[in-house]
Amino acid sequence: MIKQFIDKLIAKATPGPRRAKPRFGKRTEVPAEVHGIDPSLVDHRAVDVVRTLKDAGFEAYIVGGAVRDLLLGLNPKDFDVATNATPEQVKGLFRRAFIIGKRFRIVHVVYGHGKESDVIEVSTFRAFLDNSAAEQVSGNEKTSRRALAGVQHAVDASGRVLRDNVWGPQDEDATRRDFTLNAMYYDPETQIVVDYHHGIEDAKKKLLRMIGDPATRYREDPVRIIRAVRFAAKLGDLGFALELKTAAPLVQSQALLADVPQSRMFDEVLKLLQTGHALATIDQLHKLGLSQGIYPLLDVVVERADTDFVHAALSDTDRRVREGKPVAPSFLLACVLWEDVRAGWNRRMQSGELPLPALYEAIDDTLDQRIGDISGRGKLAADMREIWVMQPRFEKRTGRVPDSMVAQLRFRAGFDFLWLRAEVGEVDEALAEWWQEYSTADEQRRYDLLEQAREEQKARQRAQQPVVRRVAPKVTTDHGIAPAAPEPASSTGEPVAAAAKKRRRRRRKPGTGDTASPSNTD
Questions:
Q1: pLDDT of the residue at 115
Q2: Considering the entire predicted model, what is its pTM?
Q3: Is 80 part of the annotated catalytic residue set?
Q4: Catalytic one among 164, 173, 178, 316?
């Protein structure tokens, strides 16, 4: 009793904020008949990774979002594995495995080749450490690389974790994860789910709850703010909502995102828009008071989400993800930023610039202002540029242009962009239908379509030509101005002066009996 009293006095006298002792949770093993996960939905490659690690004497589980989705009856997109093996030990067990990352060192185990390849991400159980004891580094991952070299646990001035590569037991690994729904471990061999923080209970309550103090967790990694929005959007259709305590610090913590490297922010924003819930994400951002200020490019998306063209692009992206079709960030961003390109293009042409150079300059300005200098911009910008440059070329349907267009690698993306423009009335639907048919037609049908395009072009040119009408000249009389009398006509019906002019220009052919020599004139 006396010792406890002294400890309290010492704690009160100690300056600085008091930190609660971390609660690592109690290990609960939930059997298959309770959690109801369908083993057939588990990726066989993830099962192979788990089995290989366990055969080598390590612990290994499928973890994170895959367990959450399996528990909810969804089909997981990615499967991650957690183990007590170090990255070097994991790498040594697989023929094609690569250690990546500096902030969090993980292993990518690769299956298949080329486009058919897939990656199982393997992470080592991490220790739950007191960030107040971590090495503090000024700047961020990009500006303080030298100071971070060789450091296992480091934070920046705001408390954001820059390095977290200290290994620990499974219960501490669970506590350092973000949401209770993402902190469960599934063993595909025994089919048990290991739960430390009542994740299964929260799943039944349809609750998205942060482990630990939400404000502290957002400070450790501000990107959790974006993850909170993404999970709320993804699971909103199933009735899930953010716990009030978890949602409360979001707006206040938003300023912390300014310290996150731009390349990481850009990647997280793309995840928001390309997971099949883009429109639901926009709704959540408004609902949570985060519609502005997370990231400049996301601000543009939210601002234009109600316009017909961008709304159609977001809706089309959601549809493709639901149907299991691939989506490209270049296409969606090209749709979002088309308004900037088109405005800059028109402005330059009105000032006298030629159409194609004006378009290229407008594209460069838009990419510089909206995308900036981020990692991977080169490929992304090249694809967006190609989509935009195709648009005026779709208007040209004669000669070799159609065949060269259809043969381009990015034709389908450019055509889909044209089709969206037609849907919102920006271009004639007949133009999009013509290209749709031409791209799938045989040689004879393509010839007919080209003839049709030529006839349409001639008709447009005739319609654009001004109509010239002859007006009789006016003459002055004693009574004022009156139309001149019509000129007398010749026997051919032409005016006499015109007929005489033709006669004066006519030459007789040499060598005939009744004509003069070429040197003579009439």
A1: 72
A2: 0.76
A3: yes
A4: 178
